[in-house]
Amino acid sequence: MEMRCGNWCTESISIHFLHRMRLVLYLSVAALLDNVGFFMGGLYTDGHLCNFEALWLTLFEWSVLLWVCCITFNIFFNAILYKKTESYEIVYHMICWALPFIIALSPLVYKDFYGPAGAWCWIQKEFMTWRFVIWYGPLFVLITILFIMYAIIIMKMKKRASTWEGTYSPELERLKKIFEDDAKRLYGYPFVYLITSICPVLNRIQNAINPDHPVYSLWILHCLFAPLPGAINVIIFGLDQDIRSKLTWLQIKATFLARFEERTIIQEYSPFEDDTL
């Protein structure tokens, strides 16, 4: 029984780590592309280039947020339900790439809501309701859900601590430590989104109340905080000791060369088969 437990724990740790690394990569790519959109900022007239920038920002802002949500659900399934989630990866991609594309395209297809909107092209001030329907409303709903899930994760893990500590097993303790570290690390994401969204939301509310008299200081804070979530996400994951240990030159080289090595094929032969001479 202990041997089976050890094998299960070792396999779970290995698969969990590799799967988590891929999720980190996907989030990092989304964050990078999101920040590319902020570099497009400028005084554009309403046209194709402005629409493209608005669509790009909406697409990858949503993508970053949804990858955070998927990682949270992944931790919940692993740490609380002990359910393997590798088979969900394709579903994660559909949610985090296809759904944001549909959302980003809807203001353009339904009506040309995109246009100059301050520092960047986005939904124009005449369509303020759409700003909250497309982004700010769902943003805080998802943040609330994330807070609830993290609270459940922490409470469940504390409750199970006595069960884990009953019979000492190095593999179980290691598995416990990995899940706990992941939960603690990811617990900061709702705070990141909440804090960095306060100034943009306040600025958009002021724009809605008094669109002809923008507040310069709010716009400065908006421009400073709006691009930060993606960068902070990358920093948080970059501080992961496991990830840094895998980003050495030897590890990268070994992984690259392993892609070109032929796999060893083991075949089974029966000694009772008739040989043809």
Features:
277 residues, mainly alpha, Rhopdopsin 7-helix transmembrane proteins, two-stranded antiparallel ribbon, 2% strand, globular, cAMP binding, transmembrane helix, GCR1-cAMP_receptor
What does this protein structure show overall?
One of its GO terms (cellular component) is plasma membrane. It comes from Strigamia maritima. With 277 residues, the protein is an all-alpha fold. 74% of the residues lie in helices and 2% in strands. The protein has a single domain (20-161, 173-244), classed as Up-down Bundle (Rhopdopsin 7-helix transmembrane proteins), CATH 1.20.1070.10. It is built from ten helices and two strands; from the N terminus they run αααββααααααα. Strands 1-2 form a two-stranded antiparallel ribbon. The longest helix is centred in the first third of the chain and has 38 residues, at 2-39.
